[in-house]
Amino acid sequence: MKYDGIYYDLMLDYDTSSSVSWAENTYRVKNFNKYKPIIVDQNIYIKIDDDEEALMGDFLSLPKHIWSKRAKEIIEEYVPYGIQFFPVIIKHRDQEYSDYFILNCHNIIKTMHRDRSEFTMSRSGLSYFIDSLSLDEDVLDKIPGDQRMIFVLDEHVSMILYHEKLVKALEDANVTGVGFVKVNDWDIGSAFD
């Protein structure tokens, strides 16, 4: 349980950031779901619905994480392994915003503690439905700290976990658009808190 208070999941703060969706994307979005290093050689377009106000916080999206340029620079300073950033163009009505970047995290770790977490497995046995989460210290102890500053939870691939050192740096910079939830406080309803 020693890592449950050290790692955080992120939640979009709808009061300071708009939700975004894929727009007339010229790159196949599914490549971001392969969780490996990729090459993006075309523009990535994302949009904010026209009927919404454009709230341009530092964090803009779930489950794919989109960060502002200043947040990206902080993350790159702390995370030497397992991530890539690609520029995105965000469209809203007649405006375009280009100082944003999508995070491609390809550092996947199978680290859910099976006895302390509450979960059910899908019929296929390929995915988990997690109600509450605890991380396995036996797994994480074997991985150097700089190689687990950010990682994708293998058992729940839409969850990217951030180490407390990075979260503190982002909070100290007053990033907007995001809330941080410790793993030991996370449950299936956290996104709605």
Topology:
Layout: E1 7-12, E2 21-22, E3 44-47, E4 66-68, H1 69-78, E5 83-92, E6 95-105, E7 108-109, E8 118-121, E9 128-132, H2 137-140, E10 150-153, E11 160-163, H3 164-172, E12 178-182
Helix pairs in contact: 1-3
Summarize this, please?
The chain has 193 residues and is mainly beta.
Helix fraction by DSSP (H/I, runs of at least 4) = 10-25%
Percent of sequence in beta strands:
25-35%
Q: Multimeric state of these chains?
A: single chain
Output the helix-strand order: EEEEHEEEEEHEEHE
Q: What gyration radius follows from the Cα positions, in whole Å?
A: 17 Å
Please work out how many helical segments DSSP would assign.
3
Low-confidence stretches: none
**Whole-number average pLDDT?**
88
N/C terminus separation: 23 Å
Largest sheet: 5 strands, mixed
Task: Considering the chains and any ligands shown, give keywords for the structure.
mainly beta, about 30% strand, five-stranded mixed β-sheet
